[in-house]
């Protein structure tokens, strides 16, 4: 797994243009997994039932993960819609995203090259308008400490931009921290050093947020 943060859509977007009397409408949305991508594609089909084609592409995870990609030409000549759309998504470096471009045919054929430019270009222009936010990949760390050691933990959480997932105050303090996965080794080493070996953080399962 790539541990680096990556961009995801901050909000859905609809963008359209007309090319030689055909209308191309791009729908973009945040879809964290393949199931969400398929549901969004179905929702666009339901919203635009009269369109001649509902071509789509998705990156349902991290942008660098080739296992979470999909695309469809939906009746357009092979390679003229879904593939150039996927190329636009991958080129933008945005993850957890699905794009559907619907076409209302205007009576003028565009040819294979024209279709590639129309679908890829429509999505490119739509992506330029898309608001994005950063998705950071976190790992959870379990730990137990004395009250006197809490300032050390709080200081390191500030340094590494981590946070408590939950915390319990008893005879000792116990809880779970969330720290970016790429920083876990450094964080644990710093915690061990600064607490003089008294506080050990144990990694649990990773999460994204």
TrEMBL record:
One Pfam entry name: DUF1949
Annotated Impact N-terminal domain residues: 20-124
Residues covered by the UPF0029 domain: 143-198
Top-level taxon of origin: Bacteria
Protein family per UniProt: Belongs to the IMPACT family.
Annotated protein name in UniProt: YigZ family protein
Organism: Oceanisphaera ostreae
